[in-house]
């Protein structure tokens, strides 16, 4: 066997193993590796992490995962009663590692941009520091492209993009003034942010925009850590609040009995990504994970599009395939 033939066989084996991992893993390979051999979430013990959209879903699951390892938290959302419940769940998960003062409830509407600075001061007055901002608040969408009211486009961008950018800028300025530019900005994006799906045009565009904003931030501020976490279909109640194409309307559907990655697993993987200061990571059950890899390659995306009908993509997104 010649050296060239040997290299060719190794290359074939490499791609075979890689494709196999796409099928059996529930996240990208790098994130899986870090979850097994990277920094433990416990390395963040004592740090202060501010999570928006923390009252349910991924935000709640992330908060509990971090609390389990002694990470101090700021829980923000509009719904105070749910925040109090999440606070109690975090303290129970911490098993003595955290006191009630270590899990701060900060009720806020991220759309009220004029109050962002005051909320940041509240965090700093309470903890005297902030290590990580997790922008998790946001809403999804289900609508036909041609039927979407332009005001819906604006409203979704205000929530999923501009509120995130505004709050992040304030926190980055704090990092620059107090920490020499060192700090961590994280955000919940979506696989739809680099692999668009049908009937969610505004949402896909918003996540693309968010990814671009945060990637640009990382290029400008090299000392800053930026994590873009892009989940696929997750078992949360997000469809209840999702935008439609009509202003003021909500989808109001349940994701029960759909095949989706659990919020708990998603929150754990998000915590791993933050603890290891990873840049872009994603998660989802097969075939979502494999599709995410293909979406990172223009040629594979084009090939995949020839075999994936609109109906098939809908089934995958809605956890029915």
Mean pLDDT: 91
DSSP strand count: 9
Low-confidence stretches: none
Biggest sheet, spatial arrangement of strands: 3-2-1-4-5-6-9
Largest sheet: 7 strands, parallel
Taken from the alpha-carbon principal axes, the silhouette is: globular
Rg (C-alpha, Å): 20 Å
Distance between the termini: 44 Å
- Structural class label: alpha/beta
Q: In what range is the share of β-strand residues?
A: 5-15%
Helix content: 40-55%
Discrete helix count:
12
Order of helices and strands: HHEHEHEHEHEHEEHEHEHHH
Structure, briefly:
InterPro entries: KR_dom, NAD(P)-bd_dom_sf, SDR_fam, SDR_family_member_7. By secondary structure, the chain is an alpha/beta fold. It has helices spanning 3-24, 29-37, 57-67, 80-94, 116-127, 150-179, 201-220, 238-241, 263-275, 288-295, 298-307, 310-317, and strands at residues 48-52, 72-77, 103-107, 132-135, 184-188, 225-231, 234-235, 261-262, 280-283.
């Amino acid at each position: 066997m010649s050296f060239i033939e040997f290299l060719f066989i190794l290359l074939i084996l490499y791609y075979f193993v890689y494709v196999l991992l796409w099928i059996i893993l529930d996240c990208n390979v790098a994130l899986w590796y870090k979850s097994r051999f990277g920094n433990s979430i416990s390395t963040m013990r004592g740090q202060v992490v501010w999570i928006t959209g923390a009252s349910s879903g991924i935000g709640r699951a992330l908060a509990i995962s971090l609390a389990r390892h002694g990470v101090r938290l700021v829980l923000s959302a509009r719904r105070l009663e749910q925040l109090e419940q999440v606070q109690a769940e975090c303290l129970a998960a911490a098993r003595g590692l955290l006191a009630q003062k270590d899990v701060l409830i900060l009720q806020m509407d991220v759309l009220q941009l004029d109050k962002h600075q005051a909320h940041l001061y509240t965090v700093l007055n309470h903890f005297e520091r902030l290590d990580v901002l997790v922008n998790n608040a946001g809403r999804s969408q289900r609508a036909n492209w041609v039927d979407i009211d332009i005001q819906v486009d604006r409203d979704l961008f205000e929530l999923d993009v501009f509120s995130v950018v505004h709050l992040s800028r304030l926190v980055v300025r704090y990092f620059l003034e107090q920490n020499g530019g060192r700090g961590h900005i994280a955000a919940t994006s979506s696989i739809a942010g680099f692999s668009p799906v049908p009937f969610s045009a505004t949402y896909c565009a918003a996540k693309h925009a968010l990814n671009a904003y945060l990637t640009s931030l990382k290029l400008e501020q090299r000392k800053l850590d930026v994590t873009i976490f892009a989940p696929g279909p997750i078992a949360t109640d997000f469809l209840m609040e999702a935008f439609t194409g009509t202003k003021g309307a909500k989808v109001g559907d349940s994701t029960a009995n759909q095949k989706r990655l659990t919020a708990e697993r998603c929150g754990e993987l998000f915590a791993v990504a933050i603890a290891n200061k990873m840049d872009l990571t994603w998660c989802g059950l097969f075939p979502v994970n494999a599709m995410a890899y293909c979406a990172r390659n223009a040629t594979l995306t084009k090939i995949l599009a020839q075999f994936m009908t609109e109906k098939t993509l809908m089934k995958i997104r809605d956890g029915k395939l």
